Task: inverse folding
């Protein structure tokens, strides 16, 4: 079958396109004689990793735990709340409009408040990441749980199936593709949320580091920080995609 | 004479929507003997699906009596109904065998036994070798065959079909009609079959109940006296033409 070589072909193209971007970046900087403090070359950017003061590993660990922590919390609470909504219609009617309004709050604006309430640290940044990426998960999960063919419900009803059977055998597996589509959107938002938190107030993390090196105009280190943040995001996204491949039949996946 | 398996006597059903009353079924009376294949035929809005759902026990009826089961053929409404719809409604994330097993799981039947039965049923509907495929790997006609196997897994006494071949192309539909007759002959189930295809109703049915719309009314109850097993040669049979003409006339199409 051509399936395997087709996949290989796609991976190769993905790697090449990334490499081409680095080459273009390199050519732009060297041919355009761009000053280092405006835009460092790829080599200079990687070189920034050698500055021990920047404590790359520690900062990366902090940022990663904020992103993953906020994301995990959002998935748990989001999916859990959507399940409650599908079991208790009145709860959904009470809370959903409220959630829609609350979601319109620019979460960045809550940052200073979070710091007043909870001070600096990983915890508050997890909260900010959570608040940004939680809503899409609730919304898509609730949607997925409510998308059940009425005829299929009739079929279960003629067999006197219980509500729990409907939930575990039909609703939840049917909602999985929707849950993953929300989780993919949320993965991107979680990264943004954690960095916003670090910008607003923190003493560790890659976002914090960026603010520090901004003062000394070490643009190479700022570039490196952005690249590392992106890589954490890519790993998170990759994990979600992998889990989706494992749990959702190909035909049912929503991109 | 044996007692009928199903007896409807003056069954009516009215829906109320926004204060307006809508008579979906009125005064439907007919008997179904055990092992019959009865076709309910009529235009959209004639109440055939409503009648089918009343038989399934999914909603009540306002007037008349509806009884299923007889002393020789006891009927348990919780486990003696199999249903097939216009769409196959297979669960996308389950392999075909597991889809067929769904009713057995819901009823809590012994699984190893049911698994063997599911394989036999898939053989009966001509899907041997597809047990481990996912629904998307099957054509529409094959998915509907799997849905028929699912309706039979718990060995129900009554199978209710709501336009099961309505979404298929004409050729597949013809093929499925023959398949259904074969499955019916082998499984000896009582089948109530809703369709708006008049030739389909006459070709399949041992009896055709004709329903008309606006107002909903049961127009006729025709015993189809044509030999079994049936083949498509039957469609050129003189009596076949008589039956279809009679139904067309009842439905106001001449």
Result:
């Amino acid at each position: 079958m051509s399936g395997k070589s087709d996949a290989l072909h796609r991976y190769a193209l993905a790697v090449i396109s990334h490499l081409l971007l680095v080459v273009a970046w390199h050519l732009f900087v060297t041919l355009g004689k761009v000053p280092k403090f405006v835009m460092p070359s790829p080599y200079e950017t990687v070189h920034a990793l050698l500055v021990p003061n920047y404590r790359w590993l520690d900062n990366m660990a902090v940022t990663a735990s904020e992103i993953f922590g906020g994301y995990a919390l959002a998935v748990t609470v989001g999916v859990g709340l959507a399940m409650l909504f599908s079991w208790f219609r009145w709860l959904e009617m009470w809370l959903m409009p409220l959630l829609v309004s609350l979601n319109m709050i620019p979460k960045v604006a809550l940052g200073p408040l979070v710091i007043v309430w909870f001070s600096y640290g990983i915890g508050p940044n997890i909260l900010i990441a959570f608040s940004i990426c939680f809503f899409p998960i609730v919304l898509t999960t609730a949607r997925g749980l409510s998308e059940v063919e009425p005829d299929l419900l009739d079929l279960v009803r003629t067999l006197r199936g219980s509500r729990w059977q409907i939930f575990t055998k039909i609703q939840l597996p049917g909602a999985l593709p929707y849950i993953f589509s929300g989780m993919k959107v949320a993965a991107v938002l979680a990264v943004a949320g954690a960095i916003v938190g670090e910008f607003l107030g923190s003493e560790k993390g890659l976002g914090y580091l960026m603010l520090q090196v901004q003062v000394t105009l070490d643009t190479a280190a700022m570039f490196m920080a952005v690249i590392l943040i992106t890589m954490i995001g890519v790993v998170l996204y990759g994990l979600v995609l992998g889990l989706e491949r494992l749990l959702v039949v190909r035909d049912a996946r929503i991109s | 004479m044996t007692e009928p398996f199903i007896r409807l006597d003056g069954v009516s059903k009215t829906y109320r929507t926004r204060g307006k009353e809508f008579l979906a079924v009125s005064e439907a009376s007919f008997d179904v003997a055990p092992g019959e294949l009865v076709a309910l035929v009529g235009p959209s809005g004639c109440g055939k699906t409503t009648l089918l759902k009343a038989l399934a026990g999914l909603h009540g009826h306002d007037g008349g009596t509806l009884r299923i089961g007889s002393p020789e053929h006891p009927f348990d409404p919780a486990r003696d109904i199999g249903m097939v719809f216009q769409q196959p409604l297979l669960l996308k994330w389950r392999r075909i065998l597991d889809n067929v097993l769904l009713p057995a799981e819901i009823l809590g039947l012994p699984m190893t036994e049911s698994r063997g039965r599911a394989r036999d049923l898939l053989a009966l509907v001509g899907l041997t070798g597809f047990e481990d495929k996912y629904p998307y790997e099957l054509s529409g006609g094959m998915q509907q065959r799997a849905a028929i196997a699912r309706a039979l897994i718990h060995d129900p006494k009554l199978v209710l079909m709501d336009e099961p071949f309505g979404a298929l192309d004409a050729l597949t539909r013809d093929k499925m009609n023959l398949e259904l007759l074969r499955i019916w002959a082998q499984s000896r189930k009582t089948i109530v079959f809703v369709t708006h295809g008049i030739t389909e109703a006459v070709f399949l049915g041992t009896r055709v109940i004709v329903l008309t719309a606006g107002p909903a009314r049961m127009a006729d109850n025709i015993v189809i006296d044509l030999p079994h097993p049936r083949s498509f040669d039957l469609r050129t049979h003189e009596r076949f033409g008589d039956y279809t003409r009679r139904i067309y006339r009842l439905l106001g199409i001449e």
Chain A has two domains: 1-34, 39-252. The first helix of chain A runs from residue 3 to 31.
